[in-house]
Amino acid sequence: MRHALLALTCLATPLTAQECGGSIDSFRQGVLAEATAAGLDPQAARDFLNTASIDQSVLNADRAQGVFQLDFVTFSRRLISASRLQNAQVYGDRYDGIFDDIEARFGIPRGVLLAFWAFETDFGQIQGDFNTRDALFTLAHDCRRPELFRPELIAAIELYQRGDFPLNTTGAWAGEIGQVQMLPRDIIENGVDGDGDGHVTLKTSAPDALMSAATLLADLGWVPNQPALQEITVPAGLDWTLTGLDKEMTVDQWRALGVDIRNGAAPAGSLPASVLLPMGRNGPAFFAYPNFRVYFEWNQSLTYVLTAAYFATRINGAPVYDAGNADPGLSGDQMVQLQERLQALGYDVGGADGILGEKTREAVQQEQARRGLPADAWPTLDLLNAL
């Protein structure tokens, strides 16, 4: 479920994220010491760790996330199909009572959970075949993001000690487990027995998975009965420097500038919103409300979370977005060049990875404004050439 931004738990100690790389045996002993210091049973930790191994296929998957270089229209059309929409209706009906309970308790529309359920595992059908223990061991040992995965490895040991983590558990390459792909710490903190059988079984029980996911979203700050995303129309003369997720105004203030809801009812005029233009002023346009930011606790890719939030609106009855006629974007290699040139000018773009993330968008918008270009945060070849 959450692939990048993970909250620390009480299991994290001062050793967390400080030790990575080096010999496997030394790393294994360090994790054992940390688990023991966290109060876990040393024998359980040894049993868990003794046969854990590095999985090169996990590292390969971690470095091969080129799908996030796709633009929003391409990415969303690839992920959202007629069959997925139809299956969302089927599974929504099948677990109607669970979704009604979730909406009553948490104020989370069913489309939100159905969208993630669809994208993560195709409604539980494809949950991943990576050995979860080895995936977490590998990513904690790797020095790219140990601060994220070492605490997850310790949490997995706790689940194993409880009897809730067989060593042959499989899931996604990044260590997520079950139908909505939850990481071990999230399972410990937010796992819910949704079907009343006395166990939290996220791989085989849809009620457990859905109730656990809803509890996690609530814990991450979901505001009940508020939208996350809504399609809008924007006037041609809008001040584009006002757009972007780093700026907010109320719905009423935006509407006074000519921004309007494309379909459906407008929320309370006092609700804060950002105008999100994923492909610039000539492409699709959305209001991103406070709940939209919760999605980034699930996944840090703007393209992914925007697609998930949009798919949720489709499931809940919204029409297909107006794709507009966006200016041609940059290839992956060109995006890397752009990011390198922005870095040379002193901008923090979060690394030259070829992915148009929020930091790159902010830098692009600032440079567009400085050069007198339409500051809609959509990088084009004209801007690359100008740099």
Automatic annotation (TrEMBL):
Tell me which InterPro entries the record gives.
Lysozyme-like_dom_sf, MltB-like, MltB_2, Peptidoglycan-bd-like, PGBD-like_sf, PGBDSf, SLT_2
Transglycosylase SLT domain location? 27-312
Instruction: Note the SUPFAM superfamilies from the entry.
Output: Lysozyme-like, PGBD-like
Q: Which Gene3D superfamilies match?
A: 1.10.530.10, Bacterial muramidase (1.10.8.350), PGBD-like superfamily/PGBD (1.10.101.10)
Domain Peptidoglycan binding-like, residue spans:
331-387
What the entry lists under Pfam families is as follows: PG_binding_1, SLT_2
Indicate what this protein is called per its UniProt record: Lytic murein transglycosylase
Species name = Loktanella gaetbuli
